[in-house]
Each structure stands twice: as C-alpha cells, then as structure tokens.
Write a structure and sequence with these properties.
The complex is a heterodimer of chains A (181) and B (140). Chain A is an alpha+beta fold. Chain A has helices spanning 10-33, 36-61, 71-87, 131-142; strands at residues 92-94, 102-107, 145-153, 162-171. In chain A, strands 1-2-4-3 form a 4-stranded antiparallel beta sheet, with helices on one face. Chain A is globular and about 45 Å long. Chain B is 42% helix and 21% strand. Chain B has helices at residues 30-51, 90-110, 124-139; strands at residues 2-8, 14-19, 61-63, 67-73, 79-85. A 5-stranded antiparallel beta sheet of chain B has the order 2-1-5-4-3. Classes of the chains: A alpha+beta (181), B alpha+beta (140).
C-alpha cells in the first residue's frame, strides 16, 4: 500500500512503527501461547503493568486533574485527555447503564490495528487490542478505582464497532502503613 | 534554601530521601523517622479533611519560625515532602515539587521498567538527575 508524501512527517513515521511493533508482539504471543484466550490474558497483564506507570505520566502532564469521584468524571477525562494524549484519538462515550455504573467506549479509528487482518483461527476469540483494557484497569487502580474493562466488539472481528465496556466495581480504600491504626 | 526531601509512595514506603542542609539530626533511625513523617502526614490529611469548613481539601504545608514543610500529593498517591527555609514561598515550593514529579520522578523512576516503585529507589541515574534538578533550583 503506497502513500504519497512530500516530506517525511516524524510523527506519522513513529506511529506506523508503533503499530508494526505492536503487531509483531501480538503475532509472537500467538506463536508462543498458541491459544488466543491465553494471549488475551497476556495482553491484559502487559497493559496493566503499563497502566500503573502511565498514570503518573498522565497526571504529571495534566496538573489540573484531581482524583475523580464519579464514573462520569472518569469517562470524560479518560476519553478527552487520556486517550488523546497517548493515542491521539478521542473515543466516544456511549451506553450508560441506568445506575451509571457501566459505560462503553467506542473507538472509531484504532491506531493499533491500522494494517491488521485477523487470521481465521483467532477470528472469534482474539481481542487484538486487549492491551488497552489492561492499561485502563491498571491506571484506574492507581487512583483507587477498581474497574472491570473488557472488549465487547472489534471491527477486526467483523463487529460494527470497536467497543470497550468499562464497569465500575468499587473504590479502593487508601491503605494505611503498617503499625498505624 | 532546600533542606531535605522525602518521596513516599501510596503505601507509605519511603522511596527516596536526600538532604542538603540539616544542622540538627534527630535521634531516630532513618526507618523510624520516615515512618513518623508519613504517619504524621497521613493523620494531618485526615484531620484537615474532617475539620474543613468548605469542600474537602488537602493538606499542603506547615510552617514554624525556622522552616516550612511543603507536601505535593499526586492523585496516584505519591507524596513529595520538602523542608525549606522560610524565604522560599509555599507557591514556589509546590512548583518545585510539581516540576520534580514531572521532570525527574516520571522520567527517570516511573519510565524505568527495571525500577520497582514499592521499595527505595536504587538508581544512580535518578539520584544524579534529582540532585542536578535541586541544585539548579537552589541557584535560582
């Protein structure tokens, strides 16, 4: 696939490299673990480890953000600032549950999956961008919010949209240091 | 004049301590002192939030006749605590702590995948960068 460019744009180049690197990593994981379900779990774990650190990077660059008290605030900041800062996209927030404890994030253009087509043997089981779920879970855990984050649809799998469901579980208590009451 | 600096993580572990001018030493071990500082801050935070006459707020600093203790806490629970002389305003102290978070802690501790953030930071690079940062702030 050729693309005409008058001058090399460094931002564009590095995002392609990022997509290619991620793709290689998923392909390798599939080779190593063979089972797409296991690969989903691995991607989630890797994402979690990224998320617990990424949150500090995010917070340092957005000092106006304070700890969120409601899931609505989380959705707002996650989409408009978090995703924007690291992936350059702003997902849409949809499908709020009646009790406001669950919402969906719809990604219209997924930079990770730019050149990807899933092979038939994992067409129905692999969540290619599952690392994102781990990142969200890890990052929110560091601001004392326990959430469950799962993919419910992916255009790579033939669904209408790439959609992540985020469900609030509980607020984590600030742990007291040992020896304190 | 910056006297000393503590960095605590959300669990209360002291990740880093450094001092530049400390005329009087306490008679406690480093461990005891760190626990005391963290415990005091934790209690103060809780006290301040409960007594607050307005919306919930967070403890920022205390001041004596000779020094000021300033604390910058991130929403992720990392606490930067700095004792300075009174000539440095609270605003400046907090700005220094925020810059420290952004330019030193995030860049050289958080982004280093080999470094555990649950135990004292043992990285020469981090130490050097932090010392250089503080020295540049003191020269201003």
């Amino acid at each position: 696939m050729s693309r005409s460019r008058s001058a090399v744009d460094p931002k564009r180049v590095s995002s392609e490299l990022f997509s290619l690197t991620y793709g290689c990593m998923v392909a390798q994981l599939l080779k190593d673990f063979e089972n797409p379900e296991e690969v989903n779990k691995q991607l989630d774990t890797m994402g979690y480890n990224i998320g617990v650190r990424l949150i500090d990077d995010f917070l340092a660059h957005t000092p106006s953000v304070t700890r969120c008290t409601t899931l609505e605030e989380v959705a707002e900041i996650l989409c408009k600032q978090g995703f924007k800062m690291f992936l350059g996209i702003v997902p849409e927030v949809r499908n709020w549950s009646a009790s406001k404890d669950k919402f969906s994030l719809v990604i219209s253009e997924n930079p990770l999956a730019e050149y990807v087509e899933l092979p038939p043997h994992c067409q129905d089981t692999l969540w290619y961008s599952n690392i994102i779920c781990g990142v969200i879970r890890g990052a929110l855990e560091m601001v004392q919010m326990d959430v469950k984050c799962t993919f419910v649809g992916d255009t790579l799998r033939g669904n209408d949209s790439t959609e992540i469901e985020i469900k609030f579980v509980k607020i984590l208590e600030d742990s007291l240091p040992a020896g304190e009451d | 004049m910056i006297y000393n600096l503590y960095i605590f993580n959300s669990a209360g572990d002291c990740l880093y301590y450094s001092e530049w001018r400390r005329k009087k030493q306490t008679d406690m071990s480093k461990d005891e002192e760190n626990k005391l500082v963290y415990g005091m801050l934790h209690s103060l935070k809780s006290f301040v939030a409960r007594i607050s006459p307005d919306t919930s707020d967070s403890f920022q600093s205390y001041q004596t006749s000779t020094y000021r203790l300033s604390m910058y806490e991130t929403p992720s629970g990392v606490k930067f605590v700095m004792n300075t002389g009174l000539e440095l305003s609270l605003q400046s102290a907090r700005e220094i702590l925020h810059s420290l978070y952004k330019e030193v802690y995030v860049e050289f501790a958080v982004k280093n995948p080999m470094l555990s953030l649950q135990s004292p930071i043992d990285s020469e690079l981090f130490r050097d960068k932090l010392e250089a940062f503080i020295n540049s702030k003191m020269r201003e």
